[in-house]
Amino acid sequence: MTESKSSRKGLKICCGITTVVLIIFLIVSVTLFFTVFKPKKPQITAHPASLENLEFQIFPSLSLNATVGLVVTIDNKNYGSFRFKNTTSTVYYHGTSVAEAPIPHGTVPARGKFNIRTYANFTADKLISSPFLWGDLFAGRLTFTSTSTLHGKLEGMLTFDDKHVKGFVETSSNSLLKLIFGSK
């Protein structure tokens, strides 16, 4: 009889300790999942690299086309790799689309950066027709805004569903005028 009471007491202690350890493990896992392992949007930055082509035409109509080399950096802060599809980055001047740059598909490693070299073809017909152009030229500063949306998914991370993450960024660049006119 004493043997059965002591074995039951030992069984209760063992089950109690196991339950406490499992509850602590569950609390730590849920806390980590909603803080550290929470899916984050990738950060996208476009850097003008070079002026590849510049065409200026006066006759029969005034036109200016330029091809600017860009380096697009995608920074993945997640603990899983980010695989994204082909997309396009659009460059705006005071709300008017003046250029597009293709971004090919790829995979950004976990907690890493990925550089893509691409080209943006500026059609200056839209730039020239802007009422803000001459004032900005006399001020010595052209401000362009670029937006990119990356559709992709995280790989290698445990999520409740097949988690699709969309990256969206709006960056501002003042260096294009310096590239075109060659001043520093």
UniProtKB/TrEMBL annotation:
Q: Where is the Late embryogenesis abundant protein LEA-2 subgroup domain?
A: 72-155
Q: Does the keyword Transmembrane apply?
A: yes
Instruction: Write down the Pfam families for this protein, in alphabetical order.
Output: LEA_2
**What keywords tag this UniProt record?**
Membrane, Transmembrane, Transmembrane helix
SUPFAM superfamilies named in the record: LEA14-like
Which segment of the chain is annotated as a signal peptide?
none
Keyword Transmembrane helix belongs to the record? yes
| Residue spans crossing the bilayer | 12-36
**UniProt xrefs under Gene3D superfamilies:** 2.60.40.1820
Q: Which domain of life is it from?
A: Eukaryota
PANTHER family membership: LATE EMBRYOGENESIS ABUNDANT (LEA) HYDROXYPROLINE-RICH GLYCOPROTEIN FAMILY (PTHR31852)
Protein's UniProt name: Late embryogenesis abundant protein LEA-2 subgroup domain-containing protein
Please give the organism: Ilex paraguariensis
